[in-house]
Structure formats: structure tokens, C-alpha cells
Task: structure prediction
Amino acid sequence: MHGAIAIVTRNRTAYDRGMNDAGFLDNVCLLTDSYKLTHWRQYPPGTQKVYSYLEARKGAKYPETVFFGLQYLLKRYFEGAVVTRAKIDEAESFARLHFQRTGLFNREGWEHIVAQHGGRLPVSIRAVPEGTAVPSGNVLLTIENTDPRCWWLTNHLETLLVQLWYPATVAARGRFMKSVIRRFLDETGSAGEIDFKLHDFGFRGVSCPEQAAIGGAAHLVHFRGTDNLAGLLLLQRFYGEEMAGFSIPASEHSTITAWGAEHEVEAMRNMLAQYPKGTGSTTKLWARCSTK
Result:
């Protein structure tokens, strides 16, 4: 058989075992698009510097982008000695299998980073302060290589850096929604509790825990109400924020309907006894509110 099934059915190699470890996405040599592994051969001879920038192009839904997420990205994937000879070996083997030919992976370039920089990435990244609302069409971030022998590295890292679109989009959308909420609160009541008027239950609606963490952290740029623990953990570890969001004891359908419809009043009494300021989840909310 051909394709992925053949990989499963053959004897596992040391490389296969390594790719099944928890850190299989920690090799910066491979955290890019396939074609970027070949770009080091395509620049003009004598190239020593590549300077690139990130912007939110004009024409987007919101006129301003809220820049957020860079510190997590840098600390998670860029900081420290992230290139090792073992990772170079792994990446070279992967590239040979992926392209079905040799000589495309820039082993010499990556080995230079290990030998001359101790495995640290020789790049300089500048950016606007996180949380800044930037009009579209303006630069959010720049990156350039600091070693003339690593001109190819700048855009190799582009694939990781452009993932900033996700937290920036969540933060920009949150800013817009907060302005709408504030407008109606000003018309109908008080905006004093506006930070808790949009609550995050997004963990269950995304593709993986890391996306939940990144999106959950971005939500907290403008709000403080959340049930997304992953976002709070990210902000603790990577931003030094002891507790950025808050929640309350609350029920779900399971804990209420488990009492049965005939005992739903008892379920409500239990909620009030356990959590006097908590909330309930019921099949007949208004009827229960009027039950003596």
C-alpha cells in the first residue's frame, strides 16, 4: 500500500518514534512551509541581508488591528538554543523523505547557527507594543537577520510569525465588540461592568489546546470574564500575569437534568445552598423562577 497507511504498517524507525513524542513540533528547522526549505538556493549570489515586515492589509473587516501574541510566540518557539545537531539530523532526514531527493535541505546553514551562535537564532525582531490598535496598512512587526551568512533565515521564520493573525484577529474583534457593548450600555444602563459582558467559552470550539490558549489570551486583552483556562495558563507562563480573568461556580445541563424534571426545584435549592451567588441551567427556567 502507498501513503500514510504504509508508514503505520512498516516497522517503526527511530525517526518515527521521535515524531510521536510530545515535542514533535519543537524543531524550528521544520516549522515552516515545505518550499521554504529550498529558498536558500534561490536568492541572488552575494545576498547578506533580508529584511521583512508584517502588516494587516487594507480592506479588512475592521479598520484597525490589535497587535497581540508575539511574546508567546517568541518565548515558545524562538527563545534560547532552539537549533541542535539532533534537530538538524531530524530535519535533513525528513526533507529527504518529503522531497524524495537529497541536497535541498540547508544543513550547512543550520550547522553554522549551532557553531557560531550556540543554536540561537541570529535575527532581530521589532514590533509595536502588544495591545496596540494599529490602522490597517501599517507595519506591525519587522524581522531581519543579524548574521550575513543567515540571510535565508529571515523568511524561513515567516510561517511561524504570520500565525500572529489569529490572536490579532481575536483581539481586534474583541475591541470592536466591546465598543458595541459600551454603546448600548451607555444608552440603557451603566458600562461599569463592561469587562464581564462578553464571556469566553471558546476552548470547546477550537481545533486544539494551543489554539484555545492563544485565542483565550487574546480575548482577555479587552475582557476579564472567561471559562477558558488554557488562555489564563498562557498568560501566567508567558506574560507573567498572575490571574487575568475570572469566573463563577455555575451549572450545566448535566448537573441539573440529572435530578430529573420532577426534582428540578430541589436542584435549584441545591444550587442556592452550594453557591448562593451561582447560576442555574434548567429546561424550564421561567417556570422554575415562579415555583414556590
Remarks:
- The chain has a mean pLDDT of 90.
